[in-house]
Amino acid sequence: MNRLVLPAAALALAFGAASASAESGSIMISCKRGPLPTVSLINGANWQFIESIEQNYRISPIDAKAAADYVCADMSAVGDAAKLRERTKRVLANYRRR
After folding, report:
1. What phi and psi, each to the nearest 5 degrees, are found at residue 31?
2. Long-range CB contacts (< 8 A, 24+ apart) of 88-91?
3. 47-56 and 61-72 are packed helices; what angle lies between their axes, rounded to 10 degrees?
4. Which residues contact 66 (CB under 8 A, 6 or more apart)?
5. What average pLDDT values come out for the chain (98 residues) when binned by 10 residues?
6. Which residues on neighbouring strands pair with residue 47, listed in sequence order?
7. Closest C-alpha among 55, 80, 50 to residue 67
8. What is the DSSP letter of 37?
9. Cα(11)–Cα(36) distance, rounded to whole angstroms?
């Protein structure tokens, strides 16, 4: 029975990430959350999130990183996929999609 827990947990995490990215097109929202999720110094955007923005929008790498960092900086959005999606839409509203 213990052998099924790890694959099931991995599958649940994969579906959680997919649902966070579904409404914002093919943007993969992925933020680092350290052992202290309310300390912004150890939290930020994962490289996959930044790369996803660059692939989907006409945006410079510096602006993509800044946008991802802005989205992930909201500590009140920890665990709130809807808030992360809304924040992502807002910050990328002025950029054209590819």
Report:
1. -115, 140
2. 88/24, 88/27, 88/29, 89/24, 91/67
3. 130
4. none
5. 45 40 68 72 84 96 95 84 93 94
6. none
7. 50
8. T
9. 25
